[in-house]
Amino acid sequence: MLRHIDLTEALSAVYALRLFIVERHPVTRHLMDALALRDNIGSHDVFYVLLARRLGATFVTCDRSLSRAAAPYCKVRYIASSPAA
Question: Which residue of 7, 21, 38, 52 sits 20 to 30 Å from the alpha carbon of 14, by its own alpha carbon?
Fold first, then answer.
């Protein structure tokens, strides 16, 4: 079901995002590794996996097959999604 947010909610979200501290990581340093993993991990996920490896972070996902594919490259935490109601 599509849900529209009202202007107050939208402004609140924009304000919160402006306070959010982010650190950018260029993907260019991961391009060769991403290319090497093209048969194991999808293009939308591979950079997150490689960044987790580089930072020594845990990669968290609700995708069981992705968690298995990422496990050789970084620490992974699989979180089972709740069954459909």
Answer: 52
Model pTM score? 0.71
Written as six digits, the tokens of 79 are 């979180």
Contacts 24+ apart (CB under 8 A), 44-51: 45/70, 49/73, 49/74, 50/74, 51/25
14: its two tokens: 């924009």
Q: What is the DSSP letter of 82?
A: P
pLDDT above 60: residue 84: no
Between CA 40 and CA 69 the distance in angstroms is: 6
Q: Mind listing the pLDDT tens digit for each residue in 70-79? A: 999 999 999 9
Q: Which residues does 2 contact at the CB level (< 8 Å), separation at least 6?
A: none
